[in-house]
Design brief:
Layout (H helix, E strand, L loop, with lengths): L19 H15 L6 E5 L7 H4 L3 E4 L5 H11 L4 E7 H7 L1 H10 L4 E6 L34 H7 L4 E6 L3 H13 L4 E6 L11 H4 L4 H4 E4 L6 E2 L5 E6 L6 E6 L16 H7 L20 E8 L5 H14 L6 H6 L7
Helix pairs in contact: 1-7, 3-11, 4-5
Protein backbone atom coordinates (compact mmCIF):
# COMPACT_ATOMS: atom_id res chain seq x y z
CA UNK A 1 0.00 0.00 0.00
CA UNK A 2 1.05 3.61 -0.56
CA UNK A 3 1.01 6.50 1.91
CA UNK A 4 -1.07 8.50 -0.58
CA UNK A 5 -3.98 6.11 0.00
CA UNK A 6 -4.19 7.35 3.58
CA UNK A 7 -4.17 11.06 2.69
CA UNK A 8 -7.57 12.71 2.72
CA UNK A 9 -8.63 15.50 0.36
CA UNK A 10 -8.71 18.03 3.22
CA UNK A 11 -6.32 20.97 3.43
CA UNK A 12 -3.97 20.41 6.39
CA UNK A 13 -4.49 23.38 8.69
CA UNK A 14 -1.57 22.97 11.09
CA UNK A 15 0.57 26.11 11.34
CA UNK A 16 3.60 26.17 9.00
CA UNK A 17 6.47 24.61 10.95
CA UNK A 18 4.22 22.75 13.42
CA UNK A 19 5.55 19.34 14.42
CA UNK A 20 2.10 17.83 13.81
CA UNK A 21 2.80 17.93 10.05
CA UNK A 22 5.63 15.43 10.53
CA UNK A 23 3.57 13.08 12.70
CA UNK A 24 0.72 13.20 10.17
CA UNK A 25 3.10 12.20 7.37
CA UNK A 26 4.63 9.48 9.56
CA UNK A 27 1.16 8.12 10.34
CA UNK A 28 0.27 7.92 6.66
CA UNK A 29 3.54 6.14 5.90
CA UNK A 30 3.20 3.76 8.88
CA UNK A 31 -0.41 2.89 8.04
CA UNK A 32 0.61 2.07 4.48
CA UNK A 33 3.44 -0.18 5.66
CA UNK A 34 1.18 -1.86 8.23
CA UNK A 35 -1.17 -2.74 5.37
CA UNK A 36 -4.56 -2.59 7.13
CA UNK A 37 -7.12 -1.33 4.63
CA UNK A 38 -8.44 2.21 5.04
CA UNK A 39 -11.97 0.88 5.61
CA UNK A 40 -10.74 -1.26 8.52
CA UNK A 41 -8.95 1.67 10.16
CA UNK A 42 -10.57 4.18 12.52
CA UNK A 43 -9.03 7.39 13.89
CA UNK A 44 -10.63 8.92 17.00
CA UNK A 45 -9.65 12.23 18.57
CA UNK A 46 -10.71 14.79 21.14
CA UNK A 47 -10.15 18.54 20.75
CA UNK A 48 -6.87 20.30 19.99
CA UNK A 49 -4.41 20.85 17.18
CA UNK A 50 -3.39 17.18 17.02
CA UNK A 51 -7.02 16.16 17.38
CA UNK A 52 -7.70 17.49 13.88
CA UNK A 53 -5.89 14.40 12.59
CA UNK A 54 -9.05 12.43 11.61
CA UNK A 55 -9.72 15.13 8.97
CA UNK A 56 -6.37 14.47 7.28
CA UNK A 57 -6.39 10.67 7.16
CA UNK A 58 -8.44 8.77 4.58
CA UNK A 59 -9.96 6.38 7.10
CA UNK A 60 -13.08 6.23 9.20
CA UNK A 61 -12.83 8.84 11.92
CA UNK A 62 -14.57 10.69 14.71
CA UNK A 63 -13.58 14.11 16.09
CA UNK A 64 -15.17 13.91 19.55
CA UNK A 65 -15.44 16.46 22.35
CA UNK A 66 -12.63 17.61 24.63
CA UNK A 67 -10.88 14.74 26.42
CA UNK A 68 -13.40 12.07 25.44
CA UNK A 69 -11.50 10.43 22.61
CA UNK A 70 -10.46 7.53 24.85
CA UNK A 71 -14.05 6.71 25.81
CA UNK A 72 -15.23 6.67 22.19
CA UNK A 73 -12.17 4.71 21.03
CA UNK A 74 -12.79 2.12 23.75
CA UNK A 75 -16.39 1.75 22.61
CA UNK A 76 -15.43 1.37 18.95
CA UNK A 77 -12.79 -1.27 19.66
CA UNK A 78 -15.02 -3.22 22.05
CA UNK A 79 -17.97 -3.24 19.65
CA UNK A 80 -15.80 -3.99 16.59
CA UNK A 81 -12.59 -5.71 17.75
CA UNK A 82 -11.68 -6.50 14.14
CA UNK A 83 -10.94 -2.82 13.45
CA UNK A 84 -7.59 -1.10 13.94
CA UNK A 85 -8.32 1.92 16.15
CA UNK A 86 -6.03 4.92 16.58
CA UNK A 87 -6.51 7.68 19.14
CA UNK A 88 -5.03 11.14 18.53
CA UNK A 89 -4.67 13.39 21.56
CA UNK A 90 -2.56 16.25 22.89
CA UNK A 91 -1.01 16.80 26.30
CA UNK A 92 -3.92 19.10 27.24
CA UNK A 93 -6.74 17.03 25.76
CA UNK A 94 -5.36 13.71 27.03
CA UNK A 95 -3.82 14.55 30.40
CA UNK A 96 -6.16 17.28 31.69
CA UNK A 97 -9.90 16.87 31.04
CA UNK A 98 -9.25 13.48 29.43
CA UNK A 99 -6.85 12.22 32.09
CA UNK A 100 -9.31 9.85 33.72
CA UNK A 101 -10.18 8.19 30.41
CA UNK A 102 -6.46 7.96 29.58
CA UNK A 103 -5.37 6.08 32.70
CA UNK A 104 -8.33 3.71 32.54
CA UNK A 105 -7.92 2.74 28.88
CA UNK A 106 -4.32 1.92 29.77
CA UNK A 107 -5.31 0.06 32.96
CA UNK A 108 -7.90 -1.94 31.03
CA UNK A 109 -5.38 -2.59 28.25
CA UNK A 110 -7.81 -1.80 25.45
CA UNK A 111 -6.24 -2.68 22.09
CA UNK A 112 -5.79 0.93 20.95
CA UNK A 113 -2.93 2.86 19.39
CA UNK A 114 -2.69 6.14 21.32
CA UNK A 115 -0.60 8.97 19.90
CA UNK A 116 0.05 11.51 22.64
CA UNK A 117 1.27 14.76 21.05
CA UNK A 118 3.33 16.60 23.66
CA UNK A 119 4.26 20.23 22.94
CA UNK A 120 3.90 21.30 26.60
CA UNK A 121 1.33 23.97 25.75
CA UNK A 122 -2.32 24.43 24.78
CA UNK A 123 -1.92 25.41 21.14
CA UNK A 124 -5.44 25.47 19.68
CA UNK A 125 -6.76 27.66 22.51
CA UNK A 126 -3.86 30.06 22.10
CA UNK A 127 -1.06 29.42 24.53
CA UNK A 128 -2.15 28.44 28.03
CA UNK A 129 0.12 26.18 30.10
CA UNK A 130 -0.70 22.46 29.96
CA UNK A 131 -0.30 19.49 32.35
CA UNK A 132 3.21 18.89 30.94
CA UNK A 133 4.43 22.51 31.08
CA UNK A 134 7.37 22.85 33.48
CA UNK A 135 6.92 24.48 36.88
CA UNK A 136 7.54 28.21 36.56
CA UNK A 137 6.48 28.28 32.89
CA UNK A 138 5.20 31.72 31.82
CA UNK A 139 2.16 31.61 29.56
CA UNK A 140 -1.06 33.50 28.90
CA UNK A 141 -2.71 31.67 31.79
CA UNK A 142 0.35 31.84 34.07
CA UNK A 143 1.85 35.32 33.54
CA UNK A 144 3.94 35.00 36.72
CA UNK A 145 4.89 31.38 36.10
CA UNK A 146 2.85 28.28 36.90
CA UNK A 147 3.28 26.91 40.42
CA UNK A 148 2.24 23.38 39.41
CA UNK A 149 4.46 20.36 38.98
CA UNK A 150 3.92 18.73 35.57
CA UNK A 151 2.96 15.22 34.61
CA UNK A 152 5.57 13.01 32.99
CA UNK A 153 3.52 10.91 30.50
CA UNK A 154 5.77 7.86 30.85
CA UNK A 155 5.25 7.89 34.60
CA UNK A 156 1.46 7.89 34.16
CA UNK A 157 1.62 5.00 31.70
CA UNK A 158 3.84 2.90 33.97
CA UNK A 159 1.71 3.75 37.01
CA UNK A 160 -1.43 2.63 35.20
CA UNK A 161 0.27 -0.72 34.47
CA UNK A 162 0.76 0.11 30.80
CA UNK A 163 1.97 -2.62 28.47
CA UNK A 164 3.47 -0.42 25.73
CA UNK A 165 5.25 2.91 25.80
CA UNK A 166 7.38 4.56 23.13
CA UNK A 167 8.73 8.05 22.59
CA UNK A 168 9.67 9.83 19.39
CA UNK A 169 10.59 13.25 18.00
CA UNK A 170 8.74 15.07 15.23
CA UNK A 171 12.06 15.63 13.42
CA UNK A 172 12.96 11.93 13.38
CA UNK A 173 10.77 10.34 10.71
CA UNK A 174 12.38 6.85 10.66
CA UNK A 175 12.03 6.34 14.42
CA UNK A 176 8.49 7.77 14.41
CA UNK A 177 7.34 5.40 11.67
CA UNK A 178 8.98 2.46 13.46
CA UNK A 179 7.33 3.32 16.80
CA UNK A 180 3.90 3.71 15.18
CA UNK A 181 4.21 0.37 13.39
CA UNK A 182 5.25 -1.41 16.58
CA UNK A 183 2.38 0.27 18.45
CA UNK A 184 -0.11 -1.18 15.96
CA UNK A 185 1.48 -4.63 16.14
CA UNK A 186 1.21 -4.63 19.94
CA UNK A 187 -1.96 -6.22 21.34
CA UNK A 188 -3.13 -3.86 24.03
CA UNK A 189 -3.02 -0.14 24.83
CA UNK A 190 -0.04 1.32 22.99
CA UNK A 191 1.09 4.83 23.94
CA UNK A 192 3.49 6.71 21.67
CA UNK A 193 4.57 10.04 23.16
CA UNK A 194 5.26 12.27 20.15
CA UNK A 195 7.46 15.22 21.14
CA UNK A 196 6.27 17.97 18.79
CA UNK A 197 7.15 21.63 18.42
CA UNK A 198 4.55 24.40 18.66
CA UNK A 199 6.17 27.06 16.51
CA UNK A 200 3.68 29.75 17.62
CA UNK A 201 3.30 29.40 21.39
CA UNK A 202 6.20 27.23 22.60
CA UNK A 203 8.80 27.28 19.88
CA UNK A 204 11.92 25.23 20.58
CA UNK A 205 10.50 23.35 23.57
CA UNK A 206 12.35 20.17 22.53
CA UNK A 207 15.42 21.80 20.97
CA UNK A 208 17.72 20.31 23.58
CA UNK A 209 17.27 16.90 21.97
CA UNK A 210 15.78 17.87 18.59
CA UNK A 211 18.85 19.82 17.44
CA UNK A 212 20.54 17.65 14.81
CA UNK A 213 24.05 18.64 15.93
CA UNK A 214 23.59 17.49 19.53
CA UNK A 215 20.84 14.86 19.27
CA UNK A 216 23.18 11.86 19.17
CA UNK A 217 24.86 12.94 22.41
CA UNK A 218 21.68 13.82 24.28
CA UNK A 219 19.36 10.99 23.30
CA UNK A 220 19.40 7.25 22.83
CA UNK A 221 17.10 5.26 20.53
CA UNK A 222 16.30 2.00 22.29
CA UNK A 223 15.76 -1.11 20.19
CA UNK A 224 14.78 -4.48 21.62
CA UNK A 225 17.67 -6.93 21.63
CA UNK A 226 20.32 -4.28 20.92
CA UNK A 227 23.00 -2.82 23.18
CA UNK A 228 22.15 0.53 24.76
CA UNK A 229 24.78 2.50 22.84
CA UNK A 230 24.64 6.19 21.96
CA UNK A 231 26.79 9.22 21.13
CA UNK A 232 27.91 10.79 17.87
CA UNK A 233 30.72 8.22 17.72
CA UNK A 234 28.71 5.43 19.36
CA UNK A 235 31.24 5.52 22.19
CA UNK A 236 28.86 5.65 25.17
CA UNK A 237 26.60 3.05 26.76
CA UNK A 238 24.16 2.62 29.63
CA UNK A 239 24.82 0.35 32.59
CA UNK A 240 23.40 -0.23 36.06
CA UNK A 241 25.39 1.11 39.00
CA UNK A 242 24.91 -0.97 42.18
CA UNK A 243 27.20 1.08 44.42
CA UNK A 244 24.29 2.74 46.22
CA UNK A 245 21.30 1.33 48.11
CA UNK A 246 19.14 1.41 44.98
CA UNK A 247 20.59 0.59 41.55
CA UNK A 248 20.70 3.48 39.10
CA UNK A 249 21.54 3.96 35.45
CA UNK A 250 24.89 5.44 34.57
CA UNK A 251 26.89 6.26 31.45
CA UNK A 252 29.93 4.08 30.71
CA UNK A 253 32.21 3.49 27.72
CA UNK A 254 30.58 1.59 24.86
CA UNK A 255 33.06 -1.29 25.20
CA UNK A 256 32.33 -1.74 28.91
CA UNK A 257 31.02 -5.30 29.49
CA UNK A 258 28.35 -3.87 31.79
CA UNK A 259 26.53 -2.13 28.92
CA UNK A 260 22.90 -3.25 28.98
CA UNK A 261 20.99 -4.95 26.19
CA UNK A 262 17.51 -3.51 25.82
CA UNK A 263 14.70 -5.93 26.67
CA UNK A 264 11.36 -4.26 25.98
CA UNK A 265 9.53 -7.43 27.05
CA UNK A 266 10.44 -7.39 30.76
CA UNK A 267 7.26 -7.89 32.77
CA UNK A 268 8.68 -5.97 35.74
CA UNK A 269 8.47 -2.29 34.72
CA UNK A 270 11.23 -1.09 37.08
CA UNK A 271 13.98 -0.81 34.47
CA UNK A 272 11.58 0.48 31.81
CA UNK A 273 10.52 3.23 34.20
CA UNK A 274 14.14 4.16 34.88
CA UNK A 275 14.83 4.36 31.15
CA UNK A 276 11.69 6.39 30.42
CA UNK A 277 12.48 8.92 33.16
CA UNK A 278 16.09 9.56 32.10
CA UNK A 279 16.74 13.28 31.78
CA UNK A 280 13.13 14.24 32.45
CA UNK A 281 14.14 16.44 35.38
CA UNK A 282 15.36 18.99 32.82
CA UNK A 283 11.78 19.49 31.60
CA UNK A 284 9.87 19.60 34.90
CA UNK A 285 11.03 23.01 36.16
CA UNK A 286 12.12 26.13 34.27
CA UNK A 287 14.93 26.49 36.79
CA UNK A 288 16.42 23.33 35.25
CA UNK A 289 16.36 24.70 31.70
CA UNK A 290 20.13 25.19 31.58
CA UNK A 291 21.07 21.94 33.27
CA UNK A 292 22.87 19.16 31.39
CA UNK A 293 21.38 15.80 32.50
CA UNK A 294 23.88 13.04 33.11
CA UNK A 295 21.74 10.58 31.19
CA UNK A 296 20.35 10.83 27.64
CA UNK A 297 16.64 11.08 26.83
CA UNK A 298 15.24 7.67 25.82
CA UNK A 299 13.51 7.42 22.44
CA UNK A 300 12.10 4.38 20.64
CA UNK A 301 10.05 1.53 22.10
CA UNK A 302 10.80 1.40 25.82
CA UNK A 303 8.17 -1.10 26.99
CA UNK A 304 6.29 -3.79 25.02
CA UNK A 305 4.81 -6.66 27.06
CA UNK A 306 1.91 -9.04 26.54
CA UNK A 307 -1.25 -9.06 28.64
CA UNK A 308 -4.93 -9.84 28.15
CA UNK A 309 -6.77 -7.08 26.32
CA UNK A 310 -10.04 -5.58 27.52
CA UNK A 311 -11.88 -5.97 24.22
CA UNK A 312 -10.95 -9.64 23.89
CA UNK A 313 -11.95 -10.35 27.50
CA UNK A 314 -15.32 -8.60 27.16
CA UNK A 315 -16.24 -10.33 23.91
CA UNK A 316 -15.10 -13.70 25.25
CA UNK A 317 -17.28 -13.21 28.32
CA UNK A 318 -20.28 -12.28 26.16
CA UNK A 319 -19.79 -15.36 23.99
CA UNK A 320 -19.48 -17.60 27.05
CA UNK A 321 -22.64 -16.27 28.69
CA UNK A 322 -24.55 -16.39 25.41
CA UNK A 323 -23.56 -20.04 24.87
CA UNK A 324 -25.15 -20.97 28.19
CA UNK A 325 -28.32 -18.95 27.70
CA UNK A 326 -31.57 -20.31 26.31
CA UNK A 327 -32.20 -16.97 24.59
CA UNK A 328 -29.66 -16.27 21.86
CA UNK A 329 -31.36 -13.19 20.40
CA UNK A 330 -33.53 -10.34 21.63
CA UNK A 331 -36.61 -11.87 19.98
CA UNK A 332 -35.93 -15.16 21.75
CA UNK A 333 -35.58 -13.28 25.03
CA UNK A 334 -38.99 -11.68 24.51
CA UNK A 335 -40.37 -15.13 23.84
CA UNK A 336 -39.36 -16.26 27.33
CA UNK A 337 -41.48 -13.55 28.98
CA UNK A 338 -45.15 -13.78 29.93
CA UNK A 339 -47.28 -12.67 26.99
CA UNK A 340 -50.94 -12.10 26.31
CA UNK A 341 -53.08 -11.05 23.37
CA UNK A 342 -55.80 -8.39 23.43
Amino acid sequence: MEAAQFKSDQYVRFCPGCGDHAICAALQKAMAEIGVETYNTVVISGIGCSSRMPHYLNTYGFNTIHGRGGAIATGVKTAHPELTVWQMSGDGDCLAIGGNHFIHEIRRNVDLNICLFNNRIYGLTKGQYSPTSPKGFVSKSSPFGTVERPFIPAELVMGARGTFFARTLDVDMPNTVDCLKKAQQHKGASVVECLVNCVIFNNGTHNWIADRETRAERSIVLRHGEKMIFGANKDKGLALDYSELMPRLTVVAADDPRVLTHDAHLQDPALHRMLALMGQEKFTDVQNADMQPELPIALGVIRDVEAETYDEAVNRQIADIRSKSMAQTFDQLLGTLEQWEM
